[in-house]
Amino acid sequence: MGSTGAPQNTAAPNAPFFTPIQSPPAGSALSENPPTLFSPLKIRDVTFQNRIWVAPMCMYSADNGHLTDFHLVHLGAYAYRGASLTIIEATSVLPNGRISPEDSGLWTDSQIAPLKRVADFLHSQNQLLGIQLAHAGRKASTCAPWSTERGRAITATEDVGGWPRDVMGASAIRWGEGFANPREMSQQDIEDVIHGFRDSAKRAVEAGVDVIEIHGAHGYLISSFLSPISNRRTDSYGGSFENRIRLLVEVIKVVRSVIPAGMPLLVRVSSTEWMEESSEPDSWKVEDTIKLAKLLPALGVDLLDVSSGGNNENQRITPFNDFQVGIAGQIRSALFKSGITNLLIGAVGMITEAEVAKAIVENGKTVNETKEGEDGKVEGTEGAGKVVEIEDEQGAKAKADIVLVARQFLREPEWVLRVAFRLGVKVQWPQQYNRGQFLKGSKV
Ligand SMILES: Cc1cc2nc3c(=O)[nH]c(=O)nc-3n(C[C@H](O)[C@H](O)[C@H](O)COP(=O)(O)O)c2cc1C
């Protein structure tokens, strides 16, 4: 109350401008015993008010790697409407790791300030910001998809800001039609990429980002190292499974070493490159992802974000097993069977309906069993909440701990609020939007 007894429109704490306090954050359940989808999840020191995250989406709109007002509005719109984490698009750790000349980047200090502006805004709304750190490898230097015919790749040449003569990959194998010819990366190139991830992660922390995701999917650099089809190297980064995952492991280690112990670290992979039906003798398959997943908690990774594909022109998607969501469930259950309960699983791909999102995470209750090491820091391997598997009467099990959604947010930025309404869960709305709340009986 003010001195006159009038109610105060309280300011959000530590915000660089006046904005009303959002407490609890939009998207928090207000009703008792909400479904798991609207139950909080704590990973290391960070608490998410629900299980719905915005997946990274390239917008091909950055200004020489710098985020702009477009990104502030675009990312802010999802965040203040209640997504418990909004992940910034693939952000390149080196200039030659951008997919297009207009991709975002964190290879230089001047890119910190515009990122901090986005982080400050999300924090002023009591919401959390993630960033996906990436290198596009042999898929770099292409034109924005809308400038090409039916989304076909077209190499971005020097005259439109591209770098086709500086595209590099695990091996000198072109991705396919429309892509530049990559050079096989030297040891120095590999070191530059690892240092790029390290320095970009430091910059992300400096800017106030809350969560980091390493992009190991979709045929970009790390993903191309994982696959025996695109990685034909004969040195310690090629050949055996252990060698092909080496770059990813080294990137994880270096990123984990420079970010706070309490900060969640995510890894996105293509769980299969969909080449099972090809004539290739070997490819990256779900079994390889399971083998990799088992190694991740000890490296300090908290969540595996399960995507697929993107490494081969002639991939054949056979939507067996409920597409990527089913694969996420397969990986989660394999980890349980091996007694690994400290790697959370993110499901992504064609999740558009409230009931579907609810079912994916239902019964996957998570308790936080974070332990402190001797120096008082949260220990890497114990960081993630321990997931406790609970079956319902029908024997249904959670397929994932988090749902990540991309395109549905492009269609409905308020998707979290709609999902809550459709499930009959009362959630906090952004204060300024309270008068717009969906009404009982309305069809949304
Ligand atoms: C416009 C757009 C841009 C995308 N950019 C990225 C990206 O930067 N990094 C990434 O890992 N995936 C990217 N994706 C893939 C999405 O994160 C997501 O995995 C995919 O769209 C499937 O989820 P959905 O069915 O909910 O859209 C992008 C997808 C779209 C539609």
UniProtKB/TrEMBL annotation:
Gene3D superfamilies xref list: Aldolase class I
* Pfam families cross-referenced by the UniProt entry: Oxidored_FMN
Database matches in SUPFAM superfamilies: FMN-linked oxidoreductases (SSF51395)
Q: Where is this region: Disordered?
A: 1-32
InterPro entries, sorted: Aldolase_TIM, OxRdtase_FMN_N, YqjM-like
The segment(s) forming the NADH:flavin oxidoreductase/NADH oxidase N-terminal domain are 37-365
CDD domains in alphabetical order: OYE_YqiM_FMN
One example GO MF annotation = NADP binding
Q: Where is the composition biased (Polar residues)?
A: 1-12
What is this protein identified as?
A: Related to flavin oxidoreductase
Q: What is the lineage of its organism?
A: Eukaryota, Fungi, Dikarya, Ascomycota, Pezizomycotina
